[in-house]
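Cont'd.
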Amino acid sequence: TETTMRNSDLVIAHDQSNRNNTDGCGEYAIEIFEHLINTERRLSPSFNYMEQVQHDINPTMRGILIDWLVEVAEEYKLSSENLFLSTNYVDRFLSVMPVLRSKLQLVGVTCMLIASKYEEINAPQVEDFVYITDSTYSAQEVLQMEVVILHALKFNLTAVTPHNFLTRLCSLLNHDQQTKHLCEYLT
Amino acid sequence: MVVKCESRVSGKVMVVKRIKKMPSVSGDASDEDEAGADQGFPVRYLREACLLRACNHPNVMKLEFVTYHEGQIELFSEFVGLNVEDYISSLSDEYFTRNKQKHEWVLQLGRYFMKQVLKGIDYCHSIGILLRDVKPRNFLISSDGTLKLTGFVLARFSLLPEEPLTQQVVTLSYRAPEIILGGTYPVYTAPVDIWSAGCTFAEMITGRTLFEGDSEIGQLLKIFKLLGTPSDCNKSFCFEVPSYIELLPQWQPQSLSERLEGLCDEGVDLLSRMLLYHPCSRITARDALKHPYFQGDHSLMKT
């Protein structure tokens, strides 16, 4: 208990020194992260949806989809937070809705569209996302899928990603940018 | 368009904000470039909807659910009445003149409302939401006198304070100086909401907008005229300010208590802490709620 105590003291001390930084939200940091942990519990995908919900797709396909989303994010210079959010949306959507393998890429790209709208200052256009699928799907299909996904996620888009915690931890441990990027890569 | 409705299932009275999307241009390819292609659910309402969904606090408007069919978006939220701006302008001038019983009542009401304004902001900051559009118009008064914070169109979830954000936020009259001076992608965070809350506070007491500029520079001039031109700008703000600021007239700070006639000393002190130039010395919502101005029992008396 003593070490925990000391650790939390350290955290508080860090937040107080951060108060003089431009970020200025040190005072709220601990509460924000308590809230994040609660939200993470609430807005997580089910762990066994591949067996329980899906019939036509398997974990390998999901893996390929996520790898492809990483490339899309790179192509359009989307933030890593965006990528984590997209993955969360994909998994949560797949937790409630069975999807045909032919539509899996559509789900992925639409989730990324929603995450971009939520997260980016200058989000790519619907056409950009159609283009990146080599026009496998039409803009119309993407927009229809957007409606379905938004309803399935019940507009709970403020999901919590590993990235949120990572930023906090790196800031606490005074890691430099390089360490941070390595951590990002590992997650 | 906003309409009132009653749920057939629960009997709950709700407000529906119905948003018609731009007419879809698909199928009319020739116009597509001009009108801009259909982008699906608009970004601003997407953020408003999902951030309101993330909130659960008595001073934040509760968004019950959202529907989206064939380009029409409907946001169903709990029923609330007038917004504070309309309420203030519905009061006659004599409510804001000194030495009248009515003015005394406005001062009490100001304190009563301000406490709730800060509670709402405190909650949002504590879950990582930056509001970026705090103003009297975005506080709705429910029938029991509770204020409900709304207007999340510009809000965002921000945990990465070092990340630059867009400048096009906060209604000009309530915009904090660090946004105006910060260039295209200024770095700012929670204190911008406190600045706006300070402006809201003054407006509730005087019935007039505190700083009413017609442009960004005009806004800055209005601010400096009342609060004084900062002598050393790079020290007063936490970043490099544009050089034109040196050319502005040097004003001395005016007395806030004169501007806010009748407001008690504690109230003036609180306001001055909310309107500090340096974002980090500006009081937080949490500390503002602990300020002597709110100590003691200040329940509202009916007149």
